[in-house]
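Example record used in the benchmark description.
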Amino acid sequence: MTYELPEPKGPASDVAIQGGYLIGFSVQAIIGLIRSVFGWRLSMKETVTQILFIGRVSTGPSLLLMIPIGVFIAVSVGELAGRIGAGGYSGAVVAFIIVGQAAAMVCALMMAGVAGSAICTDLGSRKIREEIDAIEVMGIDAVERLVGPRLVAAVVVSLALCAMVTFGGVLACYLYHIYIQHQPAGTFLATFSQYGRLSDFGMAMVKSAVFGLASTLVATFKGLHAKGGPRGVADAVNEAVVLAFALVFILNTALSALYTVIVPAVGSY
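Model output (structure tokens):
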């Protein structure tokens, strides 16, 4: 069930109230999702629809963003490596940056900025048209019916996007290394395979799933509690995107620090 947020009494009070209700909503949504999955009540039609929708709006921008990032990293790394006589280690740097950090962050930005805004707009529009209230009057749990499929779709699309943009970023760096810098392909592949680990890619996938889940929770929370007409929906979308970005960077810092503690570094310098 949804509920109306109380009126804030000041900036600090507003942040505390919003944070508390967001945590409570997230717990409620995840528990509802688990119950619907194990109770065979998850709407597969809605889930597939949301997967196709999120994938359609996120795939193109993700690739268009990742390719220039990959080229920028290749240019920066190539110039620096050339100055210190270590051009052959560009593959190692690509493994660290593209696979370890950039791919997951691109997915996070797309899920928060593109998919999250679309989800928040959809639910916010339904809220101000009183469709959410009508669903609850009919005895349907709006969180279980609307939020659960979007959470599953966000995780599935995030995993697919992470694999896709990782391949695109590495390929862009590889082609720049071969055809622009005229470096041998063997040195790139050798250092990439030496310093790139399967666990790095696995952690990037985990990050992407967490980022997609967190961004969707924020977007659905803001959308289900939009009020004030079309302007209120626009404000909810703006707040959702900003809050999702901030949450994603916090989660990335925490997960990266945890990963460096669990998995030791490769190589010596």
